[in-house]
TrEMBL record:
UniProt-annotated stretches for the region Disordered: 1-259
Gene3D superfamilies: P-loop containing nucleotide triphosphate hydrolases (3.40.50.300), Translation factors (2.40.30.10), Translation initiation factor IF- 2, domain 3 (3.40.50.10050)
Biased composition, class Basic and acidic residues, residue ranges: 86-154, 186-214
Binding site for GTP: 350-357, 397-401, 451-454
Pfam families given in the database record: EF-G_D2, GTP_EFTU, IF-2, IF2_assoc, IF2_N
Biased segments, Low complexity type: 43-56, 164-185
Protein name: Translation initiation factor IF-2
Gene: infB
Transmembrane segments: none
Species for this entry: Albidovulum marisflavi
One GO MF term attached to the UniProt entry: translation initiation factor activity
Annotated localization: Cytoplasm
Length: 844
């Protein structure tokens, strides 16, 4: 029996149930529990009848059929031999059966393995198709391959291994594809088995997790997250992968509102704004409507409005003031060592007639005053003078009329020092205060020139005390503002004034770098007959040279010639030098900045960009009207009559002066509206605009060109030429007056007192009156006054004198009067008689 014990491993564990896979068609499989029964070997006890009737060949099995003559001993020996033979035979049969079973099992296992392999193949293909977890999958494949190798290796030393590990393996692999839960516990079994066989692989693949596994315990979390991570269903892995990808691509927080940096130029079309915020255009239009802006998505809005919208949507506005094209303009900060002193730029300000022009003139020693048309300085230039101590000073030839206020404000911006002219025979006047405010706002230091000190009525001290009220404390009053008594007429004090300027300039430490591309400001621009557009530029930094390519405002050009303040051609102009620049492609505006650039292409590009930007801005200003504005305009349109005009002038300064003068014309009922103004000849497009609006075209020191003249004749557009602003203003006033409704003026003509009240049938109540003053007239209007209170106003129904209907009753005479539609008249009431007349009005 020890033999059969030794062979135990070959069998199925002595009837232990095992699992065998059954295959069906369509690739379905099923594990079934099989129980293999071992053939019972019965060894008959000595003397006992054999349990199974053996072959009676020798008759050994049956003692009763024992041949006679055989001894007992022999018999026993034979019996033993027979038993041994039988046992051997049984054992051999059993071995054969076991062998057969093992072969069967091996086949079974191989089939299961093949199936597992095939399934794995399918899985891999699927995984490949889904591109899911490339690395993890590779790791698993590697593992699976290792496991297969292991399986192949395993049967050699343990050929008769029970079928269940293979079946379990197959089941586990199958479970892995179907769900995690089923895989868990079974896997652990397998893991434990596997680990025994290949601990290296486990360590390699699972690292630190090995420890927890070896403990044999498996929590649900571990089952799901640890090994489960790899063994999760493909769908789960796919979801995970997809999530990671979406997160990486930024779709992750769809629910969360994204805050963006929105690039915001000076103007933007609504739809483009929506685009940049990644919002719907309709929503943006809606938001604008809520803000009171009636715009469509194709309209342009300004940056301020757009910024409000951007904030409304929870984004951030990033203002981009200049387009990329502007970046070629050299804006590098100068190094301290490159800087050298530059002359101060001085603007003379003050009230009209306080002697600004005279003073400028006296300083320049030329007579500008006599050349003025209409008494207004129309040419704005600049010039340089040398002070007694040899330094240079640049004077801006700023006009002094109130119409030039805007120009002066700009002048103050390029200005380093303001000379405030106050006439000693006058006092601080409105424009003096304006000038003080301009200087203070621009943070420009002032020097007070007390002018007309030659006059006997001059009182310089009064000027100084007057200035105190406006927080200008001069040195003579222990302040820090220099004051100089001058006379433009006699030239007294002028050297002192120049010295004061030089001193102030020294304090300011004005510096510039002459060795760089020039930048400057346009002080004046005009369209010159023969020379084309000309701009007077005050170089602020760098040096402007002949041949330089530049961009100035919306224009560009190449310096053809530079002409200085003395009318001489120069090759270059350094800091603080005013020069006339020739070679522009168009007329810039006063206040425009000139920048030298490297190439014509750059200059042209910047100019084009600025032109477009300005156009957009104008469109935005026109389009983006708030509701209030719309309503105010509608209201205004009802009551205010407008006289539209177009203005073309020779220089910017004149044009601006005219605009300002025009703005002052008019009142609550009438106003002048300047549709368009510009510098240069009157062109066909001006005529077109004028025709569309029914406006006359005003040419100030300019004429219409031939096509414009023809167009004007054809279209019936009026062109008027002027060279004196006052004439222009008077004419426009007269024209605007024509728009005024005639005034109805009331003239008092008489009083009558009621002496008695009668009742007359057919007429009603009639007052018997005495005309106390003036006349009573039938056609006139009447008021009934009772104790000096008007109780009725109307007309007369009848005016009688001695029963006769009359037209007029003179003072001192009695008469009868009855009111139209009014009866409540009493004794002692007073009747006021008046007439109305319509009077043509004029604008003052
Ligand atoms: P603006 O309007 O400030 O430019 O003043 P103007 O230079 O046109 O001068 C106005 C008037 O004052 C002119 O008649 C000048 O002759 C006169 N005027 C200017 N400066 C002086 C001065 O220093 N003394 C005297 N007596 N008259 C002056």
């Amino acid at each position: 029996m020890s033999d059969s014990d030794g062979k135990k491993p070959l069998g199925l564990g002595g009837g232990r149930p095992g699992q065998v896979k059954q295959s069906f068609s369509h690739g379905r499989t099923k594990s079934v529990v099989v129980e293999t029964k071992r053939k019972r070997v019965v060894v008959p006890k000595p003397g006992a009848a054999p349990a199974t009737p053996g072959k009676p060949s020798l008759g050994a099995g049956d003692p009763s059929r024992r041949p006679a003559g055989i001894s007992d001993a022999e018999m026993e020996r034979r019996l033993k031999a027979l038993q041994a033979a039988k046992a051997r035979e049984a054992e051999e049969a059993e071995a054969r059966a076991a062998e057969e079973r093992a072969r069967e099992e091996e086949r079974e296992r191989r089939r299961a393995e093949a199936e597992a392999k095939e399934r794995e193949e399918r899985e891999r293909e699927e995984a490949l198709r889904l591109k899911a977890e490339e690395d993890q999958r590779r790791a698993r494949e590697a593992e699976a391959r290792a496991a297969r190798k292991e399986e192949v290796r395993k049967p050699a030393p343990a050929k008769p291994a029970p079928a269940d590990p293979a079946a379990a393996e197959a089941a586990a692999t199958r479970a892995a594809t179907k769900g995690v839960a089923a895989a868990g516990p079974r896997k652990t079994d397998r893991e434990r088995d596997d680990r025994g066989g290949a601990p290296d692989r486990d360590n390699r693949n699972r690292g630190g997790r090995d420890e927890s596994r070896r403990s044999g315990k498996l929590t649900l979390t571990e089952a799901l997250s640890g090994e489960g991570g790899r063994q999760r269903s493909l769908a789960a892995m796919k979801r995970k992968q997809e999530k990671a990808r979406q997160k990486a691509m930024g779709f992750g927080q769809k629910a969360e509102k994204q805050s963006r940096d929105v690039q915001l130029p000076e103007t933007i079309v609504v739809s483009e704004l929506a685009n940049r915020m990644a919002e719907r255009a309709a929503d943006v239009v809606k938001a604008l409507m809520k803000m009171g802006m009636m715009v469509t998505m194709n309209q342009t809005i300004d940056a301020d409005t757009a910024e409000l919208v951007i904030e409304e949507f929870g984004h951030r506005a990033v203002r981009v003031s200049d387009a990329d094209v502007e970046q070629v303009i050299d804006t590098v900060e100068d190094k301290a060592e490159d800087l050298t002193a530059r002359p101060p730029i001085v603007t003379i300000m003050g009230h009209v007639d306080h002697g600004k022009t005279s003073l400028l003139d006296a300083i320049r020693k030329t007579n500008v005053v006599s050349g003025e048309a209409g008494g207004i300085t129309q040419h704005i230039g600049a010039y340089q003078v040398t002070t007694p101590n040899g330094s240079l000073v640049t004077f801006l030839d700023t006009p002094g009329h109130a119409a030039f206020t805007s120009m002066r404000a700009r002048g103050a911006q390029v200005t380093d020092i303001v000379v405030l002219v106050v006439a000693a025979d006058d006092a601080v006047m409105p424009q003096t205060i304006e000038a003080i405010n301009h200087a203070k706002a621009a943070k420009v230091p002032m020097i007070v020139a007390i002018n007309k000190c030659d006059k006997p009525t001059a009182n310089a001290q009064k000027v100084r005390t007057d200035l105190l009220q406006h927080e200008v404390v001069v040195e003579a009053m222990s302040g820090d503002v220099q004051d100089v008594e001058v006379s433009a007429l006699t030239g007294k004090g002028l050297p002192e004034l120049l010295e004061a300027i030089a001193l102030q300039a020294e304090i300011l430490e004005l510096q510039a770098n002459p060795d760089r591309s020039a930048s400057g400001a346009v002080i004046e621009a005009k369209l010159d007959v023969g020379r084309g557009p000309v701009a007077t530029v005050l170089v602020q930094n760098g040096t402007l040279r002949q041949g330089d390519i530049f961009v100035v405002g919306e224009q560009w050009g190449k310096v053809r010639a530079l002409i200085n303040d003395k009318g001489d051609r120069v090759q270059e102009a350094g800091p603080s030098v005013p020069v006339e620049v020739l070679g522009l492609n168009g007329t810039p505006e006063a206040g425009d900045v000139l920048n030298v650039v490297e190439t014509e292409a750059q200059a042209r590009e910047i100019a084009e960009y600025r032109t477009q930007a300005a156009k957009d801005k104008r469109a935005a200003a026109g389009a983006a009207t708030t509701l209030e504005q719309l309503m105010a305009k509608a209201k205004a349109d009802e009551s205010v009559a407008e006289l539209p005009i177009l203005v073309k002038a020779d220089v910017q300064g004149s044009a601006e002066a005219i605009i300002q003068a025009m703005e002052k014309i008019g009142n609550d009922e009438v106003r002048v509206r300047v549709l368009h103004y510009g510098v240069g000849a009157i062109t066909e497009s001006d005529i077109g605009l004028a025709e569309a609006s029914g406006a006359p075209v005003i040419g100030f020191n300019v004429r219409a060109n031939a096509p414009a003249r023809n167009a004007a004749n054809q279209k019936g557009v009026e062109i008027r030429y002027y060279s004196i602003i006052y004439d222009l203003v008077d004419d426009i006033k007269a024209a605007a007056s024509g728009l005024l409704k005639a005034e109805v003026r009331e003239n008092f003509i008489g009083y009558a007192k009621i002496l008695e009240v009668f009742k007359v049938s057919g007429i009603g109540k009639v007052a018997g009156c005495l005309v106390t003053e003036g006349v009573a007239r039938r056609s006139a209007g009447v008021r009934l006054l009772r104790d000096n209170v008007v109780v009725h106003e109307g007309t007369l129904k009848t005016l009688k004198r001695f029963k006769d209907e009359v037209k007029e009753v003179q003072s001192g005479q009695e008469c009868g009067m009855a009111f139209e539609n009014y009866d409540d008249i009493r004794k002692d009431d007073v009747i006021e008689i008046f007439e109305r007349e319509e009077v043509e009005r004029k604008l003052s």
